[in-house]
């Protein structure tokens, strides 16, 4: 089962409401995505924690419904 | 999840200063993300050990629970979880990874 780009954006936004989110479908197969997430909430956090905030939004769907999501995070 | 798998993982992290949990073997990665991290570490010319999580389903799930991180590969340096492919790639590109390895006393292969 795959997720749509819109659903990915919505899922991230539910966890990080202020985020500017760009989702790219890497392979055009609805299964390999890249996302760039820009949020003030990342400020001062190590990158592992920033990425974890994004992953945590997906709960158990990461690696099951969502096969591959490449994550980039930064502060505004 | 048994306690034993956590002990096994902790043992590997303690025994190997640069430890990469990956899909496939070092010389035959079975996933592009794992391959990229191997390539970066090889390029930096530092000694590193790998563990193929595909060899053991308990380990494959165990490392995710251990690190509280949902994806593989996962890189540990001197017992500290550094991150997955995206973080390692970013850190490599901006020089942070080399700085971190130097700071942790990991030197290039003689």
UniProtKB/TrEMBL annotation, chain A:
Xref: InterPro entries: BolA, BolA-like_sf, BolA/IbaG_stress_morph_reg
Domain of life: Bacteria
Gene3D superfamilies given in the database record: BolA-like (3.30.300.90)
Family to which the UniProt record says this protein belongs: Belongs to the BolA/IbaG family.
Protein's name according to its UniProt entry: BolA family transcriptional regulator
UniProtKB/TrEMBL annotation, chain B:
Positions annotated to bind [2Fe-2S] cluster: 31
Keyword set includes Transmembrane: no
SUPFAM superfamilies on file: Thioredoxin-like
Keyword entries, A-Z: 2Fe-2S, Iron, Iron-sulfur, Metal-binding, Redox-active center
Domain Glutaredoxin: 18-82
Entry's family note: Belongs to the glutaredoxin family. Monothiol subfamily.
Protein name (record): Glutaredoxin
Organism: Oecophyllibacter saccharovorans
């Amino acid at each position: 089962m795959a997720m749509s780009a819109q659903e990915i954006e919505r899922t991230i936004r539910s966890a990080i409401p202020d985020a500017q989110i760009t989702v790219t479908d890497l392979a055009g197969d609805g299964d390999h995505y890249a996302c760039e997430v820009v949020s003030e909430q990342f400020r001062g956090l190590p990158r592992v924690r920033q990425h974890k905030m994004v992953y945590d939004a997906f709960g158990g769907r990461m690696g099951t419904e969502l096969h591959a999501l490449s994550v980039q995070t930064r502060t505004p | 999840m048994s306690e034993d798998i956590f002990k096994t993982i902790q043992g590997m992290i303690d025994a190997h200063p640069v430890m990469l949990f990956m899909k496939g073997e070092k010389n035959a990665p079975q996933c592009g993300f794992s391959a990229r991290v191997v390539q970066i570490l090889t390029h930096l010319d530092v000694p590193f050990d790998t563990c193929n999580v595909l060899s053991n389903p308990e380990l494959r799930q165990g490392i995710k629970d251990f690190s509280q991180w949902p994806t593989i590969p996962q890189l540990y340096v001197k017992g500290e979880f550094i991150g997955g492919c995206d973080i390692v790639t970013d850190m490599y590109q901006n020089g942070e990874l080399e700085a971190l390895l130097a700071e942790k006393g990991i030197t290039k292969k003689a």
